[in-house]
Write a structure and sequence with these properties.
This is Competence protein CoiA C-terminal domain-containing protein. InterPro entries: CoiA_C (IPR057252). By secondary structure, this protein is mostly helical. The protein is built from four helices and three strands, in the order αβααββα. It has one domain. About 45% of the residues lie in helices and about 10% in strands. A hairpin with a 4-residue loop joins β2 and β3.
Length: about 130
């Protein structure tokens, strides 16, 4: 089951935070460990930027771990990272940030086109 329904903060906000805080700073072909991604996002959970709904089912660490894992599955599908083992990934495709509104709209359209070929996050097994 997807963890996204447990996250009150909109996906584009927390996903952008993770992209900019982590991947945008990495050189290509750099290894990144899942616990580093979790640590980077935890800062924003603790300061209230990222808010979870009532999380009685899982503890906060498990929520963050599942959130990062599912997002990594999406980045794998987009070809931005490559899975090396259970917890390590290789950053292989650079993050490109739009420089204009027109470029942002084009990037949004490209992502919309990819949606049809992206696996349903609800069916990804851990």
């Amino acid at each position: 089951m997807s963890i996204q329904h447990q996250i009150k903060t909109a996906p584009h906000i927390w996903q952008t935070i993770l992209l900019i805080k982590t991947f945008h700073l990495l050189p290509l072909n750099q290894m990144i460990e899942q616990h580093v991604l979790e640590s980077n996002i935890t800062t924003f959970v603790m300061n209230g930027t990222i808010i979870f709904r009532n999380h009685q089912v899982l503890d906060l660490n498990e929520l963050i771990s599942q959130m990062v894992f599912e997002y990594c599955q999406l980045l794998l599908a987009f070809g931005m990272i490559k899975k090396l083992n259970h917890t390590d990934y290789l950053y292989i495709k650079p993050v490109s940030l739009p420089k204009s509104v027109d470029q942002a709209n084009q990037m949004d359209q490209n992502l919309s086109n990819l949606r049809q070929n992206t696996p349903n996050i609800l069916h990804i097994q851990r």
